[in-house]
Write a structure and sequence with these properties.
The chain is α/β, with parallel strands linked by helices. The protein is built from 13 helices and 14 strands. Helix content is 36%, strand content 16%. It is globular, with a radius of gyration of 22 Å. Bound molecules: 2-acetamido-2-deoxy-beta-D-glucopyranose (7 copies). Keywords: Signal, Transport.
Length: 400
């Protein structure tokens, strides 16, 4: 055992020595840790490029290679003064978790005062906003963390094939808790960030205008889809599965409501945010990050469901929605206002932080406080299988 431990320790040391060398070579911050005021979280190249070659700052001044980052995106990028940095997770939940873990636990950085700014494109619920819009989330909900039965084998009285873990029906609260179902971030900070973004002139495209007009035939339900792009405060769903259509769209609207006890307002859908938030939460437990300093912005690139009369397949695969370009442009237009707002207000407001008056954290209350969603800390832990469980037995029973 001792030798295992020694081996482990020396591996750790080897790891940090390597990191230190990387730091010395690329960061040379006089041995000081890099303490960015804003860390932009991009998910793939187009989202990252939205921030490059802009007049405000040069994120490509420092490329810092860190072991553990995505093979596609091996570097963290920082401005000359290291005030703003950028990481690129790679797409979907596994990449997001692994990349953010690498950065959040890296000895290269002091992230205790850093604002993490998730800025990516997303699908959009036409009931809540239109393509090109910038949405700011309070809740991130892992909507596909459920059982699934293919619709062709489903009893006819089920409204969807997704059934919460440990439940019997789609609308039942899950009784088997993994802990990543819902994350709640600082609502006051969200509003400040959204107001910064409202200073921007958002891009639109002719193709997007033409396409969104199709939603006008519907009832008043899709009014938001037909308007010009805007800044909207509404929540994000995380799912590795890139879904499309009315039934899944509605099903995950329902899941968001269910998991957040009625407060969540599903509007955008992407593949990473819960994974990113889980890591930032784990780092916050060790005082490496501050969970009250997270902003989740998603700009809308495509609708999550078709306009009336069109099919889900058409919506997903064949439609030219015209939203991709404006969504990428608006990462910059809306996002730069947020970054500049934080930098300009640093001494007055952001250095000391924006106090959260809502609950922030996960379903377990890991960071303290009582979640305003979920069954309560004690019950959630019990249902997680972390302690001896009834729910573990029932899970096994269900599996068996
Ligand atoms: C950082 O990498 C980018 C390409 O990813 C490159 O354009 C840029 O010149 C690099 N910066 C430095 C300082 O080497
Ligand atoms: C995912 O993130 C959303 C908010 O962005 C949160 O409401 C949800 O709880 C998170 N779920 C998981 C499984 O992390
Ligand atoms: C569906 O019908 C079955 C019986 O065929 C019944 O046991 C079950 O409770 C029903 N489920 C729902 C969600 O109503
Ligand atoms: C938005 O457009 C208006 C009118 O053209 C202009 O006055 C304003 O400076 C623009 N705002 C930004 C942030 O570019
Ligand atoms: C919906 O509206 C669009 C644009 O006004 C029109 O071209 C289209 O024919 C309408 N579709 C239906 C099914 O009414
Ligand atoms: C969503 O919830 C509504 C209201 O309870 C219900 O009528 C609808 O069938 C649900 N949709 C799906 C796809 O589960
Ligand atoms: C959330 O809803 C569940 C299921 O209805 C309930 O057991 C739980 O007490 C609610 N939690 C809060 C914080 O209201």
């Amino acid at each position: 055992m001792l030798s295992m431990q020694t081996l482990f320790t020396s591996l750790l040391l080897a790891g940090s020595t390597f990191s230190a060398q990387v730091a010395a070579k690329t960061a040379s911050h006089n041995g000081e840790k890099i303490a960015p005021k804003v860390f932009i979280v991009s998910m793939f190249e187009p989202e990252a490029q939205a921030w490059w070659n802009i007049p405000e700052f040069d994120l490509l001044s420092h490329n810092i290679t860190i072991p553990g980052l995505s093979p596609l995106y091996p570097d963290v990028h920082c401005t000359k003064d290291y005030e703003v940095c950028q990481l690129i997770t790679g797409e979907a939940e596994i990449n997001a978790a692994a990349t953010v873990t690498t950065v959040a636990f890296s000895p290269l950085f002091d992230l205790t005062k850093t604002y993490f700014f998730v800025a990516g494109i997303a699908g959009i619920n036409p009931k809540r906003a239109t393509t090109g819009s910038a949405t700011f989330a309070r809740y991130a909900v892992q909507v596909a963390l459920q059982y699934e039965i293919d619709i062709r084998e489903l009893s006819s009285n089920y409204s969807t094939g997704y059934i919460p873990l440990g439940a019997d029906y789609p609308d039942q609260y899950p009784t088997s808790i993994y802990g990543t179902e819902v994350f709640e971030v600082n609502a006051n900070l969200r509003t400040i960030a959204a107001n910064f973004a409202r200073r921007a002139n958002l891009s639109d495209s002719t193709a997007a205008k033409v396409y969104r007009a199709n939603y006008a035939n519907a009832s008043a339900e899709y009014k938001a889809a037909t308007l010009a792009p805007s800044v909207v405060e509404c929540d994000v769903a995380t799912s590795d599965v890139y879904y499309s259509g009315n039934i899944l769209g509605t099903a995950f609207e329902n899941t968001t409501k269910l998991f957040t006890n009625g407060t969540g307002d599903y509007c955008s859908t992407a593949q990473e945010d819960n994974a990113t938030l889980e890591v930032l939460l784990r780092a916050a437990v060790h005082k490496l990050t501050d969970f009250s300093r997270i902003i989740v912005m998603r700009t809308a690139s495509d609708f999550d469901r078709p306009y009336p009369g069109a099919s889900a397949t058409y919506n997903l695969l064949y439609s030219d929605q015209g939203g991709f370009e404006p969504a990428l442009e608006n990462i910059y237009h809306a996002g730069i206002e947020v970054v500049q707002g934080i930098l300009q207000g640093w001494e007055k407001t952001f250095k000391k932080g924006v106090k959260a008056t809502n609950y922030i954290g996960d379903i377990f209350g890991t960071l303290g406080g009582q979640p305003d969603f979920g069954p309560g800390t004690a019950q959630a832990l019990e249902e997680s299988g972390a302690y001896k469980k009834r729910s573990l037995e029932s899970r096994l029973r269900r599996r068996g």
